[in-house]
Amino acid sequence: MKATIIGGGVIGCACAFELQRRGFEVTVVERNGAVGHGSTSASCGIVRRFYSQPGMIAMADEGAHIWADWNSHIGPIDGDTINFPRPGMIFFPPKLDESVLRIVAEMKRLGIKVTVLTADEVIERFPFFDNASHFPSKQPDDEDFFKTSGRRIEGAVFEEDAGYVISPDLATQNLRRAGEREGVLFRLKCEVRDIKRTHSKAYRLETKDGSIIESQILINAGGPHSSIINQMAGVKLPLETRALRREVHSLRNPLFDEVKGSPVPIIGDLDGGVYSRPEAGGRGIIVGSTDPDCDIFDWVEDPDDYLEGVTGTYWERQTLRLMKRFPQLEQGRPRGISALYDVTVKDWYPICDRTDIPGYYVCIGTSGSSFKTSPVLGMLMTEIIEASEKGRDIDHDPIQLTLPRTGVSIDTRFLSRLRGKIETIGTVFG
Ligand SMILES: Cc1cc2nc3c(=O)[nH]c(=O)nc-3n(C[C@H](O)[C@H](O)[C@H](O)COP(=O)(O)OP(=O)(O)OC[C@H]3O[C@@H](n4cnc5c(N)ncnc54)[C@H](O)[C@@H]3O)c2cc1C
């Protein structure tokens, strides 16, 4: 059966690889000249398992196993493949309450190496951190921004072998090569402009250069363009996806040593409002936002027309917030990138599902946090499509996905378009 995927980001390429291996005849249509050059190229590639949803913890853990064994996951291909350093990740939640301890218990249940640290233990283990609490976060122009709160953090959670993938666009190119080996066709520099259904209920895509692509199955993996592609297909979902502008900035790491490397882990500072990870082999540090309540969301109406580059406002607040946690950092000068998340506005979890129109599927709304699970989402989409095309009503009989490396089975209804309320903190930190 022919399947066309719109979007050659990490999601589209992961879906293509899995679907082709299961016997579908897959074409990926990508408007850029290479795969992985959309929002994936800006991804920090952080792989952590600290999530509120048990299903997401399990999927992220499966993802971690795959990234650690990437070459055997994708099989033999030409060229370089990714690296996956694992310096660990420290989380500073605003409170070390029942909800945090529940996550830690679930992580431990799955065998993930995770430790709860007191405020003193944070400093014993990472003497370069400041253990003051800054919650709730403030804007740098708030008169209290630089004042000490007089409070310490209640503690922290350390995920011992969290890591990050260098680099997400290389991972996507690896998936392309692996997909091509299996028979996937990639049509690059090919922008879908219109989607119609024929009398025989196939999808008929018209591209910018006037060519036509037809298939029985169509998958929207358009990242920040997801809502535009749904509109083109005449599909309205009960959950809204929107593009959100982000900036990620880079600083020099003052603790980098040519021989010993860097002792600085990945940081998820929900107390302070930022996340960060090592960059350039530990020579640098990159910092993004966890969207504290005092910041205004920078929603973008047209993903082809947003402010590119770094702005002083974002740079100042993200770097200063990180410097409060890691005082030896020097701000330097504004350096970094801007990019878009594709956010599922209701709960910041991806939507991986069929739709009300037969043959049209979505893997969208990945909300700045689905790089790590992309190979797993590819497997899930394959299960969803196979089951639906065989006539199973997955709305009432949802996919129970058995994760091949960890052996855990999850009910994937929390990623459906019809899900109810789910446990989420409503933001992401890599
Ligand atoms: C700044 C930033 C930091 C992040 N950090 C992390 C992290 O640390 N850890 C983590 O797990 N996740 C992270 N993420 C999230 C993760 O990177 C994304 O969820 C993932 O890359 C999205 O991939 P995608 O394939 O859906 O989107 P994209 O990579 O944007 O791919 C969609 C593709 O569709 C193409 N397209 C769109 N419209 C059309 C059309 N009409 N015709 C043809 N092609 C079209 C685009 O050109 C694009 O290449 C981050 C994301 C960002 C932006």
Write down how many β-strands occur, each being a DSSP E stretch of 2 or more residues.
22
What is the H level of CATH, i.e. the homologous superfamily of the largest domain?
A: FAD/NAD(P)-binding domain
Tell me the overall shape.
Answer: globular
Average pLDDT number: 96
User: What profile does the largest beta sheet have?
Assistant: 9 strands, mixed
Instruction: Give the percentage of residues in beta strands.
Output: 15-25%
In CATH, the topology of the largest domain is named FAD/NAD(P)-binding domain
Give a short synopsis of this structure.
The protein is of the alpha+beta class. It contains nine helices and 22 strands. A hairpin with a 5-residue loop joins strand 19 (351-354) and strand 20.
Structural topology:
Elements: E1 2-6, H1 10-21, E2 25-29, E3 46-47, H2 54-68, H3 70-74, E4 89-92, H4 98-109, E5 114-117, H5 119-125, E6 156-159, E7 163-164, H6 168-182, E8 185-187, E9 192-197, E10 203-207, E11 212-215, E12 217-220, H7 226-233, E13 241-252, E14 266-269, E15 274-279, E16 284-289, E17 299-300, H8 312-325, E18 336-344, E19 351-354, E20 360-364, H9 374-389, E21 400-402, E22 409-411
Parallel strand pairs: 1-2, 1-12, 2-8, 4-14, 12-20
Antiparallel strand pairs: 3-7, 4-6, 5-6, 9-10, 10-11, 13-16, 13-17, 13-18, 14-15, 15-16, 19-20, 21-22
Helix pairs in contact: 1-6, 1-9, 2-9
The structure holds flavin-adenine dinucleotide (FAD).
Flavin-adenine dinucleotide binds near residues 8, 192, 222, 368 and 370.
